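User: Can you help me understand a structure? I only have the sequence.
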Amino acid sequence: LMFTDLRFVFRTLFRNRTFTLVTVFTLALGIGAAAAIFSVADYVLFRANKFPDRVYLVGGRTDTGALMPVRFDYMMRAYEQTTAMDEYGKAAFVAGNIVIKGQPVATSWLGVSPNLFNMLGVTPALGRGFLPGEGKDGADNVVIVSDHFWHQFLGGSPDVLGSKITMGDTVCTIVGVLRTGQVLPMYFMADVFRPLVYRVNPQQPWLPQLWLLGKLRQGVSPEQAQAMLSSVKLDVPAPLREYVAKDRVALSTLSQLNQSLINAGIYWMMLGAVGFLYAIACLNVSNLVLVRMLGQRRELSIRLALGGGLWRVIRLLVLESVTLALLGALAGALVASWLFPLLLRAAGTSFGGMNWSGWLLNWRVIGLLGGLTILTSLFIVVVPVIRLLRTDIHAGLKDGGGALGESRALGHVRAGFVVLQAAFAVVLLCGAGLMVRTFQNLRSVNLGFDPSDKVKMQITFPPSTPTEIQARLARLREVEAVLLRTPGVRAVGFGNDIVLPGYYFPNVELVGPGGDPLKASVSSFGNGFQDAAGLTLKRGQWLTHKKGDDILVNEALARVLWPKADPVGQFVRTVNQGPETRRGWQGWRVVGVVGDIRANMRESPGLCVYGPETWAPFNFNTFVVRLTRKYDEAFAGTLRRELYAYDPQLVVDQILPLSQVRDQQLWAEHLTDSVLKVLSGMAALLTVVGMFSVLAYTVDCRMSEFGVRLALGATRGHLMTLVMRRSLLLAAVGLAIGIGATFGLTRYLQSLLYRTSAQDPLMLAAVGTILIATSVLACALPAYRATKADVVRLLRSE
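Assistant: Let's start by predicting it. Here is the structure, written out as tokens:
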């Protein structure tokens, strides 16, 4: 019997191909988008944060509460003497070039203790892990590479094990390859891993920074472990005492660490947004099924009258809804794995290069598809079944019963569906509008320089580089000259990282107005930096670098210290440097005012002092290169090769266009903007399809009524107005409800908004225009069809 019913359902759906295709298309968009967003959110929020429960990151806390590494091996050795942990794993980024076939490659190198991967539960897909004895000098010439490194630089060759690559001064053998998409904790992500042999640079004993993992001993709580580690007496060398964190020991699980470094609110917001789209799809389909059932009212009444049985008819409706939902879910799988990523790439993002091809392998997403299939089936069938239970068989059997129209209650239900559909579409359109305005506002922020033709390079000098000021400056100028000789380079400058470093770090207290302390940032740069970076001099002159007490200040500091006076010629003093420090010293003399330079896209420029290049050249590791050509990866490779030929010990850690640095700081806004634009576009499309389909069915059911109206003197314009007026009224009600809901939901987007609000009249006007235009587009063809009623034929049939 069930097989017979299924055959009947498939025949019916095939006979009504237009209805079936529209319904499956609508469900595919809603279910597919939901599955795509869920797969990403599930990966970021849950699967990428699954680490062993008893493994903790051991570090300290900064004044701002941020976790910091252990930093020093003497602290690590002291902690190992306690019974708080069963074992410790260590990691540190090591400065050194990675060379393949004589050419340096752009990648990162992490030194790890041989037991670290076992602590994290990481097993190479090819080869083996590190052996206990390989963490010693002379035995550390083995490496494990990531799947990305294997494919990008080694061609993905299956016989990669045993291959040689050069790490710094050592030729190393590849003994393992990590699996595709291997998830590691933040701060432990790299392309190449080598056993860690910790070597302290006497000139910079705080480098390299150590990241320390501890596996909690059985029976010891995290609080007890923290107390044990905090009670350890440390013999801190005098030069290092200023670097010890105030809160010396802080434990954090790896999941907590990852969660603190991602913006989880973005992914919850995307899940909420795709929920609105899914609701629009279900409302559309439910409305379509209702309208179709009204057209079949007489057929259903005949079935009931001939003894078909109410529950037999309900079973047919349930089977039909399950079939439609299942077809929608299968088509949704294609949408999620192909169409949705394609639309996101067209909108300018790809979820950080996530591998979409493997999303269906996640059982959670497969479970979601199954759950959505069941939920969609219920959503589709519940109102038609309720309507069927209330069917008046006698009314349905009357002549013309199929054209008598719907009941007042059912009309209200369908009108409510249209209103909710419009309201949800408005919420998505408003969200997309807010993010578009935010993204535009952030992109138009005055950075204090033009990033379009500039590249920022981070360089690590070998330990042998002299720290004496003049020798260090000579070395920096040699590097500058090498870069200037490279074709395509217009200007080069070196100094501290002051152009979009991502953070503002006040490192000195100045004497402020009234003698109160004023926190500011002190940096310095070489004499070619301002030209290379394109900084703007607002007053005075650039530093001549002849007098160590001459400084530049930015506009923000000038406004605070001298709001009504000319800053040039004024003096700036630090709190801890009074007259007793240097007899007759008045302070740093301001010779010029520089335009404010952004450290972060969202934060206002801080208070900054810029000193001459002789202040701290041993801290200079940033070069800004101004180009005469378009930047690409080939040019980045040229810069690496030129510096490697100059000094193989010189390490280029990073080469990034400043425009890309800016975009990286806006990744959250960019991702949200792209996703909401795609979802709102789908919502607008579903709104058009839904309104059009429902109106088309409604007009077909009312063609006899329209014929009567025309016979009684109604004009075709009156009929068009009649069809469109009610739909536009429902759209207007949905617009009002959607805007009200947007005001209430804005607080969940507030952390992402920048210089815009939900009450933005331009955005609201644009959303209203889009919705009304969408409604007119959906109504136009059915309204026109209503005017084509054949009065003579319709009256004859009645």
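Now, to help you interpret it: The radius of gyration is 34 Å. DSSP finds 23 helices and 24 strands in the chain. Let me know which part you'd like to focus on.
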